[in-house]
Amino acid sequence: MIVITNPSAISNEISILDSLFEEGLALLHIRKPDFSEIEMATFIHQIKLENRNKLVLHNHPILAEDFGINRIHFSEKERKDNTLISSEGKSFSTATHSIEDFNSLSSAFNYAFLSPVFKSISKEDYHPKTNLFEALNSRTNHRTKVIALGGIDTKNIQKTLENGFDDVALLGSIWKNENPIKQFKLCQQIVQSHFR
After folding, report:
1. Residues β-bridged to residue 30
2. E-strand spans in 6-151?
3. DSSP classification of residue 49
4. In this predicted model, which residue has the larger pLDDT, 184 or 87?
5. How many angstroms separate the Cα of 87 from the Cα of each of 27, 70, 72, 84, 108?
6. Strand 71-74 relative to strand 109-114: parallel, antiparallel, unpaired?
7. What is the overall mean pLDDT for the chain?
8. Residue 86 neighbours by CB under 8 Å, 6+ apart
9. What percent of the chain shows pLDDT beyond 70?
């Protein structure tokens, strides 16, 4: 299970993130599109050293080296603009919005988000244009894990995993909840029981 940061800063964010890591969060995608390089460095610096290997950078990948971060995420636009060179010890992820895009990914990507699966919790008027569960029947890329994103919460995680997604990513479900840590634990229990 993956958690993506709220795009903008929120109060007590680092404290909440520390608690999520303590509860077993395996991967945190740091997506702060409006952060400058200095703001991003300051943000990462506040995250405990022992959790840096669980971070995935969306912005300012140049900071990865400085902080010992080996995971880089490419937006759809960045992926199409760049030639990816798979470098030793690095892990890449990306975003896709159709099964065709997902199927055409190079083997450089360890996993990719496929979204939106359901109506977004965090983005207004962002909902699926196609049924991604049906689309998964056309999956030909089995080298790259497919991660469900968009409207994922306790009510639909089970259905999502049962219908072909390899894992789920949470954003609005966590950050729009009045108790993000409790919400994370509930989602985590559903994911863990599915994989038992």
Report:
1. 57
2. 27-30, 55-57, 71-74, 91-96, 109-114, 145-148
3. G
4. 184
5. 20, 10, 11, 9, 9
6. unpaired
7. 93
8. 92, 108
9. 96
How far is CA 25 from each of CA 61, 91, 191, rounded to the nearest angstrom? Answer: 22, 18, 12
Nearest to 40 by CA among 32, 49, 51, 52: 32
Nearest of 64, 26, 38 to residue 145 by alpha carbon: 26
Q: Is the pLDDT of residue 89 over 60?
A: yes
| pLDDT band per the 50, 70, 90 thresholds, residue 105 | very high
- pLDDT category of residue 61 using cuts at 50, 70 and 90: confident
The answer to whether 17 and 24 have CB atoms below 8 angstroms apart is no
Are 70 and 91 contacting, i.e. CB atoms less than 8 angstroms apart?
A: yes
Task: Please state, in angstroms and rounded to a whole number, the distance separating the CA atoms of residues 127 and 171.
Answer: 15
What's the CA gap between 93 and 80, in Å, rounded? 13
